[in-house]
Amino acid sequence: MVDANKKVAVVTGAGQGIGRAIALRLAKDGFAIGSLDFNTVTAKETVALIEAAGGKALAVSVDVSKREEVISAVDQVVAKFGRLDVMINNAGLGPTTPLEDITPEIYHKVFDVNVGGVYWGIQAALKHFKARKPAKTGDIVGKIINASSQAGQVGNPDLAVYGATKFAVRGITQTAARDLAKLGVTVNAYCPGIVRTPMMENIAKKVADENKQSLEWGLQQWAKTVTLGRISEPEDVAACVSYLAGPDSDYMTGQALIIDGGMVFN
Fold first, then answer.
1. Does residue 35 sit within a domain?
2. What pLDDT score was predicted for residue 220?
3. Helix pair angle (198-210, 215-223), 10° resolution
4. For a Cys-Cys bond, which of 2, 110, 121, 172 suits 89, CB 3.0-4.6 Å?
5. Which pTM was predicted?
6. Annotated binding-site residue? 196
7. Cβ–Cβ under 8 Å, residues 258 and 191
8. How far apart are CA 33 and CA 10, in angstroms?
């Protein structure tokens, strides 16, 4: 039976890493979760973890670079749970791309996922947010939260494509915040630094293997650039997103919160 009062959050890229941590944290916060991922198996694994802890969730397979797939996926979550309160556009790709190695295929693929996925997620959410009218000026009927990055704050070596997409997400976030405020919708972003995810571990392992060292050694090379002296766990980022999804951030919009352990200071 649908609980009409239970808030609902959709998380793209919920099958692993930061996305899974966000889904688990928001489920703990009391949200029903739409677990969206390109990988159906991992999306369902996230749902199983949420349900094992007593929460509610639905897995939907989606390629976020495809507009109609994103809209359909969000519609399926709303059909299941009866509403949408928070849309988290988390899914992304982060390839290393030295400038000479960038091809049209890499450029299009990364932009289609990292930037296109944000556009389509916003559109999919708005379809449902616009059905609810704020009772008075300043009331919040929905929240959109986008994944930017520390690499969307400063340029990083060999990340010309990824970094460009994350700078773009900040721009989209600011514009959408202005455009959607009158509808009672806030739009913010989060900017992680170096996070212990499968993607990051693959990068660190490559460095470690080249130096005949362990994975932890490889990760520690990246931690040297972090003021707090350690790389982030996905749960650190999820805590930031929990704040953005909750009522304590209702008077915040158009912002990109940096959660990087002290790599960038603004």
1. yes
2. 87
3. 100
4. 121
5. 0.95
6. yes
7. yes
8. 6
